[in-house]
Each structure stands twice: as C-alpha cells, then as structure tokens.
C-alpha cells in the first residue's frame, strides 16, 4: 500500500510540471559551460539558450528625428547632444537587418530553469545583484 501511495504522489507532482529556478555563472563561452554550484557544471549538450542571449538577427524599422538635445525623460540619465555631421534632421529606415552580438561570455551571471527530470536546462537571462544594477563597465 505504501508503494501505491508513493507512486500516486510522484504522479501528482509530475502532473504539476514543476520547474526549478537556478542561478549560475558562465565559466567558458566556447564550448559553453555554466557552473551552478561546486558539484554541478553544465555543458552545452544539457543547455537550451534563450535567443536574446545569442548572436541573432532582427528586422527593424527606425523613425529618427535629430533635435538639438533629447530631454532627460527620453534617453539616458541626462540630456544628450545629438548634433549631426550629416546635416539631415529626419529619416525613416524600414526593414533594416540588425545583428545582435549578445552571446554569453565568461563571468556572466545567468538564471536557468531546470526542466522536469533534470536533464535539460533553459538559460533564460543574465542577471545582476541589486547593488550592481547601476554600475557600468
């Protein structure tokens, strides 16, 4: 009877599709290795990476106007000088290809989801600790 209760409990847990959230650090970018803790280092065959953490392409459109300055509320932490050496003040760019070179690199801190069963891990994003949010390299 104990085994039947145990099997029923395991099935109930599996039916909820539990996922564990883990934190890790990139130890090597190529081949990709992520250290979760001292006894668990994940290699690329166990990892799925969210596209925004990889080199990828996007098609974009840009509507640009060149004012003398951008006010604080529009861009960055302070007004920016946006003078143009080209002399134009407006342009529209449609369907331009932009390549993001945003691959994981050594030292990046990452958030992972462990898929049920523990054999696949999804790297969902980089993260910073609270005190590091406003520090820039």
Give a structural overview.
The chain is mainly beta. It is 10% helix and 44% strand. The chain is built from 1 helix and 10 strands; from the N terminus they run αββββββββββ. The chain has a 6-stranded mixed sheet, with no helix packed on it. A two-stranded antiparallel ribbon has the order 5-8. The chain has a two-stranded antiparallel ribbon with strand order 6-7. The chain is elongated, with a radius of gyration of 23 Å. The model has no long low-confidence stretch (mean pLDDT 81).
Provide the residue-averaged pLDDT: 81
Strand order of the largest sheet: 3-2-1-9-10-4
Quick one: biggest sheet? Answer: 6 strands, mixed
Over all CA atoms, what is the radius of gyration?
23 Å
**Unreliable segments of 5+ consecutive residues:** none
Beta-strand percentage? Answer: 35-45%
Number of strands: 10
> In which range does the helix fraction lie?
10-25%
Number of helices: 1
Oligomer: single chain
Topology pattern, helix = H, strand = E: HEEEEEEEEEE
Shape: elongated
Distance between the termini: 61 Å
Name the structural class: mainly beta
Pfam families: DUF2577
Protein name: DUF2577 domain-containing protein
InterPro entries: DUF2577 (IPR022555)
Question: Strands, helices and their partners?
Answer:
Elements: H1 2-15, E1 20-28, E2 33-37, E3 40-43, E4 47-49, E5 55-65, E6 69-70, E7 80-81, E8 90-101, E9 109-114, E10 121-126
Parallel strand pairs: 4-10
Antiparallel strand pairs: 1-2, 1-9, 2-3, 5-8, 6-7, 9-10
Organism: Heyndrickxia oleronia
Protein name: DUF2577 domain-containing protein
Pfam family, one: DUF2577
């Amino acid at each position: 009877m104990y085994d039947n209760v145990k099997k029923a409990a395991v099935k109930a847990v599996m039916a909820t599709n539990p996922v564990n959230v883990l934190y890790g650090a990139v130890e090597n970018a190529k081949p990709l290795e992520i250290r979760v803790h001292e006894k668990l280092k994940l290699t690329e065959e166990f990892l799925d990476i969210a596209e925004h953490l990889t080199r990828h392409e996007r098609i974009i459109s840009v509507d640009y106007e060149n004012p003398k300055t951008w006010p604080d509320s529009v861009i960055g932490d302070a007004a920016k000088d946006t003078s143009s050496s080209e002399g134009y003040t407006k342009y529209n760019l449609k369907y331009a290809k932009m390549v993001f070179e945003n691959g994981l690199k050594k030292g990046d801190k990452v958030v992972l989801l462990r898929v049920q069963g523990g054999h696949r891990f999804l790297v969902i994003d980089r993260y910073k600790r609270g005190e590091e949010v406003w520090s820039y390299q």
